[in-house]
Write a structure and sequence with these properties.
- By secondary structure, the chain is mainly alpha-helical.
- It contains four helices and no strands.
- The chain has helices spanning 13-22, 24-27, 34-46, 48-54.
- The longest helix is centred in the middle third of the chain and has 13 residues, at 34-46.
- The chain is globular, with a radius of gyration of 14 Å.
Length: 71
């Protein structure tokens, strides 16, 4: 995993895709925290209320037993 965290703002879908692709190696690192970092990013940028409204099952949780993602 990368040694430091950073914030990157983008202003278009194309720029967002490019930013994610640039960090893909870190996000997909074996035994890394990539999916959790991505989840935290979504929560911080969208807000939990918006994410809950967008879920396919309103009563579902984002994290299940043993740290598995449910959505």
């Amino acid at each position: 995993m990368a040694a430091a965290c950073f914030c990157q703002n983008t202003d278009s879908l194309q720029a967002t895709k490019a930013a994610i692709q640039q960090q893909l190696g870190d996000l997909m690192e074996e035994n890394g925290w990539g999916i959790m970092i991505f989840l935290y990013s979504l929560i911080l940028t969208h807000g939990l209320a918006v994410i809950e409204r967008e879920q396919d099952e309103p009563s579902a949780t984002l994290m299940g037993a043993h740290g598995y993602c449910t959505q």
